[in-house]
Write a structure and sequence with these properties.
Helix 2 runs parallel beside helix 5 and helix 4 packs parallel to helix 6. Strand 1 and strand 2 form a beta hairpin. This protein has a two-stranded antiparallel ribbon with strand order 1-2. By secondary structure, the protein is mostly helical. Helices cover 60% and strands 2% of the residues.
């Protein structure tokens, strides 16, 4: 710390970190929080981005103020350019909340291929570590759904065994169009398991139909589980009735 830091309250990064309690203050005068957000936006340190991102993890009243502050915070983080990417990626990896904001920011700062890579890395981390809140998994799975990338399917596959039905359904939707052969058996196992709920079974039938996988070897187990509009054709593939 230099002589100037003694009179100004610390180095730039230290100043940024000291503003976090104000940025995440839900109650009290909103002007205090808004001033801290603006001060951080004028700094040029990665720590400032990390603290700004914390604003996305709280919701304040009224909701119009919350929305305005978050949009302002979004623009401030975006103004850091590529320097904001490492803190955003770290935030995405370590924080359960505000995943959609992190992905939206990465979408502004990186190519689609790079954003997909960040999603895959986050999914791989989540599949290896317990997390109680399924929301982050669902947001990430929805984000990669419909994208053609060889990295996606292996990262999504473990979520067919997640505790949350919403996560299983999101994983089935993400896998459906990828026609990933290693997913056939896990899809069938999920469909035919006694503990699988009806919503998940219906999503599994849809995923099998979209994937074009044959279930002929499990016909006897699958047929009793068919619901409209799904049928089995002569080749043992799940189809939607015309």
């Amino acid at each position: 710390m230099g002589l100037l830091d003694i009179f100004t309250g610390g180095s730039g990064p230290e100043k940024a970190l000291k503003l976090k309690p104000k940025v995440t203050q839900k109650y009290g005068d909103p002007a205090t929080r808004q001033k801290a957000i603006q001060q951080l936006g004028e700094m040029k340190y990665p720590e400032a981005v990390s603290v700004l991102l914390a604003r996305f993890t709280i919701t304040v009243d009224p909701l119009t103020t919350d929305a305005d502050e978050k949009e302002h915070t979004f623009e401030l983080v975006k103004s850091f350019g590529k320097d904001a990417v490492p803190p955003i990626v770290e935030f995405l990896s370590k924080t359960e909340q505000a995943t959609s904001w992190a992905l939206r920011l990465l979408g502004e700062l990186l190519s689609e291929d790079e954003v997909t890579g960040a999603c895959v890395n986050a999914l791989q981390h989540l599949s290896a570590h317990y997390t109680k809140n399924p929301e982050k998994k669902v947001v990430l799975l929805h984000h990669v759904t419909g994208r053609e990338d060889a990295r996606i399917a292996p990262a999504v596959l473990p979520f067919l065994e997640d505790m949350s039905d919403d996560v299983k359904i999101a994983a089935l939707k993400a896998l459906a169009s990828l026609k990933y052969e290693p997913a056939r058996e896990p899809m069938l196992k999920l469909l035919t398991a006694e503990e699988t709920g009806r919503r998940v079974q219906t999503s599994a039938l849809a995923a099998l139909a979209d994937s074009g996988f044959s279930v002929a070897d499990k016909r006897a187990q699958v047929e009793p589980l068919l619901v409209e509009p799904f049928v089995l054709d002569k080749d043992g593939r799940v189809q939607r009735r015309a």
